[in-house]
Amino acid sequence: MSIWAGLFAAGYDRFMAPSERAGLARHRERLLACAAGRVLEIGGGTGANLPFYGHGVEKLVITEPEAPMVRRLERKLRGYRVPTRLCRADAEELPFEDETFDDVVSTLVLCTVRDPTRALAEVHRMLKPRGRLLFIEHVRSEDSTLARWQNRLRGPWACFGRGCQCNRRTLESITAAGFSIADLRRELLPMAPPIVRPLVVGAASRT
Where are the domains of the chain? Predict the structure, then answer.
């Protein structure tokens, strides 16, 4: 584990707090209100989604590959009201059987996974027929000027953000993985640098 990994995890909630207060938490609440049945969350981080899962969730499984994040997530899970299992695993190698989950949740994760194509193939494999991927992801801008800046600053931002790629075409990757976009809102990640501000919030059904 690098020193930066520990520092990044320690400061993540504080760093994200202005965005959460300015609207990101409301996006999480609206999206996760419809999560139901057996739910898998990939890249759970420090547990920012935990307050927003509703009573429709029967069982929650959270994967997170980074040990410093796992430690903080474990503390938040103590006494949590939803039966939850925490598993340290990469999104590209999920240790579950096919068609296990009703919903899979990904919030600010597909920007950071090493191989989004492989990760989305795993999500597709995990979902039951007509299961849903519920997502909040920052993406490549539709504005060509901002997109060029995303390309230029991708490397420095990835170093700061533990691999976060600010210019990924995530919606295209979701549809290419065999999902049908059922609901989509284009938003802005509030109180964030411009290169990571373009945001998509929505649900995609397994086809």
Answer: 3-206
Angle at 29 between CA 184 and CA 80, to 5 degrees: 135
> Which strands sit side by side in the sheet containing 84-87, from one edge to the other?
84-87, 57-63, 37-41, 101-107, 127-138, 198-206, 179-188
CA–CA separation, 200 and 77 (whole Å): 27
Write out pLDDT tens, residues 119-172.
999 999 999 999 999 999 999 999 999 999 999 999 999 999 999 999 999 999
* Full-model pTM: 0.96
Tokens of 27: 């996006």
Q: Residue 62's beta-bridge partner residues?
A: 41, 86
Structural domain 3-206, CATH architecture: 3-Layer(aba) Sandwich (3.40)
